[in-house]
Amino acid sequence: WQIQFHLGPSLFGRKLDIFTNHPLSPDQKFSRQTYYQLAWNNDVASFRISQAGSFHYYATDSNSSSTKSIASGYLLSEPELTIGSTGEKLPLDCIQCQTVLSKNLGPISTWEEKLLVSKKSGYNMVHFTPIQELGDSLSAYSLSNQSKLNSSFNDSNDKPATFEDIEKLTKKMREDWNVLSICDIVLNHTANESPFLISHPECTYNCFNSPHLRPSYLLDAMLFELTLQ
Description:
alpha+beta, four-stranded antiparallel β-sheet, three-stranded antiparallel β-sheet
């Protein structure tokens, strides 16, 4: 796909500079804070979409001493999904997805036979809830360690499951079963007993960085005291 910017009638006579954080060549890595200026060619500024994701663009007035944006927006580039060993394209409107509770899948060695049910039921995508280590509440989205796998995935002989095991299975699903996979990453939910929060208490809501919570904290403390009495 090619994105083109044209000057509308209300902008005739003005010279604009347009910037985007979408890389201008396929070999460039995306960095949200890095912007590239587009070149004008016959009153058209354009670039080719080479990556999927959400990208920002903005325009400035070249004749102004100010670098402040006078217009901006976002564009969304949809991913191109492929399945099978030959890379057959799967249209986005053909996705049939089933969600599985990862914490209930058990040892990694038993996943394949369980996930085969989704394949044989006609699904072409499996959505996994978070696969990382859970907190004491065992809520599927309350993680105690974002960089470790859930220990319930370990086999009975205490062989620890690894991210490589997950990758191997999802690759087999994609290439042999024609089934894609998607997994939640949880960046804003952390178990309250997480070692990360103990070392970085400023990363959570508390009465110091969120003083508006103090009345709620006092009420909760009073109710707790009443319960003890």
